[in-house]
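Supplementary Note 3. Input sequence used for the single-chain structure prediction.
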Amino acid sequence: MGVSQIKMPQLGESVTEGTVDKWLKHEGDFVKRDEPLVEVVTDKVNAEIPSPFEGKLVKIAVSEGETVRVGAVIAQIETGGATAAPAKDKEAGVAHTELPPEPPGAKAPTATAAPVAAGEADGGERARLSPAVRKLAAEHNIDPTSLKGSGMGGRVTRDDVLAAVGGDQTGAAPQAPTKPAPSAPARVDGEREELVKLSVMRKSIAEHMVRSLATSPHAWTLQEVDVTNLVRYREAEKDSFKARHGTALTYLPFVAQILCEALKQFPWLNSSWSDDGVILKRYVNLGIAVSIPDGLIVPVVKDADKLGFTDLVRVINDLVERARNKQLKTDDVQGGTFTLNNTGATGSIASQPIINQPQAAILTTESIVKRAMVIDDAIALRHMMNLCLSFDHRIIDGMMAGQFLGTLKQRLEEWTAGSIRL
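The predicted structure, written as discrete structure tokens, is reproduced below.
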């Protein structure tokens, strides 16, 4: 018998730490190889980590909600022998170490975070900081290496930086910051109220939303679109499309392809703000907002403007499925230049989305509703859909936003089978 260590995987090149969100197994459970073991959340993605071994889970070393460095031991599995290391460990992204059999009566070794190597105080100290902490420190011109960290192993946390900002501590003053006094505990009426602890993902979403509204002045506009021709085409083709290609035909890819074309025509909508100027993107990495049980995640269709319609359908469906099954990789959620959200799936007819920073705008497609409309002085039943756009008013004015939506409206209303770019 041998004991194998499961370590915090590196879910992306720039990711230096991860948070254990939920253990899917308990100590003493038998775990099959490739069976989901733990849910890990980083500031980029959340994912289920499969077990690279088959055996008994003898120790959970990191509690739910705890953040540790990449490479830190998070669990130990008792395997059948020293040859249990699987061939697919590198592919699975799970680091592990095989331990020799323990003598009878020996206690399971206590897992500790990966030690800091000598000489890591400078370059290594940067690696110990999360991207969010590094960004916050840079925004306030604070040298994080001058601060005494209150996190595990002396790691500098967001609270440490905020405390330094409040105390006006900068670079040369290596004083230990005074942490803000903890807020009073929530007061809950046990009979009529329930306190639900926030998941790591929900906390991350909350932080991103607050930061987005604080970063850019949001403006909003809406246009209604007659999508009758598109509805008729999809209804006629969806069954044969699935038979030919093995995947569902939804409305989203139709909008996505027309959206990519419009973004090439209006590059300011596909840009980001910087202090030196506006960065126009000559490519379209289209984010697709996907609702999952514990929040929202935005996988990215890379170079969506270069994909034919069928490939666009396949890529979108694949990303949505992997997002809901927690199988996304870090690269799947990075590099977006514009975000598309289908709020109509919930029955919404109008919504005001929050921009996915550092992008310039976000578009929602609302529910398709059959309504009586006036067409050439006559009443006709038409399939109508609202398009809603939130945009960064530092970059885009109302005129441009209206023209952009007007272009989408025209192309969707004049849609024919020939509009598809195969």
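The chain has nine helices and 20 strands. Residues 301 and 380 are 37 Å apart (CA to CA).
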